[in-house]
Amino acid sequence: MxxxxxxxxxxxxxxxxxxxxxxxxxxxxLLAAPPPVTPHNSPRLRKGVALRAxxxxxxxxxxxxxxxxxxxxxxxxxxxxxSCFPDHLALCDDVVVLKRLVDAExxxxxxxxxEAAADQIVGAGAPHTWAxxxxxxxxxxxxxVGESMEREILGKLGQxxxxxxxxxxxxxxxxxxxxxxxxxxxxxxEAHLDRGNGNADxxxxxxxxxxxxxxxxxxxxxxxxxxxxxxxxxxxxxATSSHVTEQIAADNNKSHPVKGSKPSLMERNPTAxxxxxxxxxxxxxxxxxxxRQLPTYEREPRPxxxxxxxxxxxxxxxxxxxxxxxxxxxxxxxxxxxxxxxxAYPTVFAERSTVDLKDKFRNMERYx
DNA sequence: CTAGGGGTACAC
DNA sequence: GTGTACCCCTAG
Length: 368
Hints:
Blueprint: H1 6-17, H2 24-32, H3 43-58, H4 65-77, H5 87-91, H6 95-107, H7 113-122, H8 126-132, H9 135-145, H10 147-157, H11 165-172, H12 178-203, H13 241-255, H14 320-333, H15 338-344, H16 354-367
Helix pairs in contact: 1-3, 3-4, 3-6, 7-8, 8-10, 9-10, 9-13, 14-15, 15-16
The protein binds a DNA duplex through helix 16.
């Protein structure tokens, strides 16, 4: 894997700085690692660093309140950091209140460039971005978000991508063509981006869940009798995310200039979701609005002994959309590349594991 | 990570 | 009871 470019490292660090679940020592190590990134490039990064220093000062559980308070005051008075804190923090004279104010500061951190860019592509800004994109940009956006998401976005715009011959050309190009390799390579980037978004929103704030329409039991989704041609993507050339993102950012800028002097592709996606590692939860109905408060990596230990059957997951029937997408994925990536398929359709398969995909396809082969 | 075996739930 | 759907476990 090639070393991270400074610009990419900055984007990652800027996001991580404001992610309170990333432990301070881990973040410090990342900050110290090459390529060097100056925290002064981004208000979020600066403030994240400052809040981490404050967190550290307030985190000694053994120390008395007065000691914590003095440590915190020292941080608040540091010349490099003082401009990052609002005045009322320095005026606060109670540790408990100060901790609450710090929590509020964490919660009010601005979105990172990555999140903001994702939002522009698949989030709230998507309709505007897509509506103003020319053919070339649209094709690149397609490569980034994937077919399912593109359909969703264009659906909102009242458009149909099937009328665009160029898109079809991209989608249907044979696996040996260079165009398709680029497709694959960029879809890899898309996948990475998507995962990043999910994580981002997990921490950031509300994440509007987009359930698939509850289509009842499929009647027409049929698996091809012959196993689908396996189109392995392993070993293909992979474009770096920075190449793709820079190009699209440039194109985006052309078609609709956005705020700031350095618009980025990686904008925030309020619709993306990530799930906590919690075996007991059914993610569909219990997603807190503000997730930034999550304090720790800890996870409920699984009870020992034999596990009662089907207590971990609720049984969820496959929708027609899921089945069709699975078939499409197998046609595209080949049977057996379940991880690739899951990554390629993160929204559709958000609640399906790779094993689920494999099992479902096996059942479809068996019984259809 | 994937394939395959096998258990349980559910509809008929 | 039977067939199917969904899920879990485990070996490679």
